[in-house]
Amino acid sequence: MSTQKNNFIQSISDCSISIDVKNVTFESILEQWEMREGVIEELFKKRDSEKALDLMLIGIKLYFLALFLANQRQFSKNSIIHWQEQITDFSVKPLNLEERLTYIVNNPDHYHSYFQLKQLFDMKIIST
User: Fold this and answer.
1) What is the pLDDT of residue 90?
2) Which value, in Å, is the radius of gyration of the alpha carbons in the chain?
3) In this protein, which residues make up the domain named YpoC-like (predicted)?
């Protein structure tokens, strides 16, 4: 894995979200995503991928948190660092999740990654 990709994964893992991961709910995850989604889209429309990147990292972390919660798994900093091994046996996950998340995680500063992440959130793997 390239240094840049490792840095993205570490950045996702390190980014701060305003959710207590020990008492998280699907509603709080969706609320946090919805607060950022429109801003991310606007930044990409303005071709400001640099500013969109920070919000994308948070959005990706929120999705991982939702995915782990949906599968009743403990979420920690290492969950994202080793995400590919972690999700292989998840029973609740969208079709082609590994391929989609690989693209998103490796290219969080691309509009298509935002579009894929939005689609994953819209699939409602999590119940509200």
Assistant:
1) 92
2) 13
3) 26-122
Tell me the H-state helices in 15-96.
26-45, 49-70, 77-81, 83-86
State residue 100's pLDDT score. 95
Is the distance from CB of 9 to CB of 105 less than 8 angstroms?
A: yes
Model confidence at 17: pLDDT above 70 = no
116, two tokens: 């894929």
Indicate the burial class of 11 (C-beta count within 10 angstroms; 0-12, 13-18, 19 or more): middle
The conformational region for residue 61 under phi > 0 = left, psi -120 to 50 = alpha, else beta, is alpha
78 vs 46, 84, 91, 109, CA distance in Å? 34, 11, 20, 22
Average of pLDDT values for 90-119? 94
Those residues whose C-beta lies under 8 Å from the C-beta of residue 6, and which sit 6 or more positions away, are: none
